[in-house]
Amino acid sequence: MFSEEKVTHMAAYLLLKNDRRMPCIKLLKLLYLAERQAFDKWGSSMSGDRFVSMPHGPVMSQTYDLMKGFGHKQSTWQSLIQDEADYDVSLKPDTEIEELDELSRSEMRILDSIIETYGHMGPFQLVDFTHDSCDEWQDPQGSSFPIKPEAIFRALGKNDLEVKKLVDKNREEQALDSIRHY
Prior knowledge:
Blueprint: H1 4-16, E1 21-23, H2 24-42, E2 51-54, E3 57-60, H3 61-67, H4 76-80, E4 81-83, E5 88-91, H5 105-118, H6 123-133, E6 145-147, H7 149-155, H8 160-180
């Protein structure tokens, strides 16, 4: 189940590690790469977001909508993250790491790893990287279409049995989440 609070804290953490500001497309790519690493490590998403192939690479769908302002006026996203000129976003002043209590230490380690590995790359270097390195992404020819978890698992090198087990695990987690939020 998608957690706006979790993805907002993930984005805020990455912004804190990058002088509190970055281009939207770079933030989207870093968040996607973090989710991909979580899939590889744990077999599930940190945020519960859905993934889509878009012309500039794989994207977290609901996070993209939040960034474009499709959320509620008083959303968690808007309480911590603000739009800037030139398609940048920034962390609102006075936001500190202690406020990001939705993130576990292991999730922060994944985010740290992503910043360490990819943080030096520019936005369109990341677009090119995800086009070349994320085999689950397929060019949507100007449109968009879903990326299924099994495509991510296969792209990460999981065999058929592992993919089946991980997909089943994800379905069970989604069913439990829907019951919890009912």
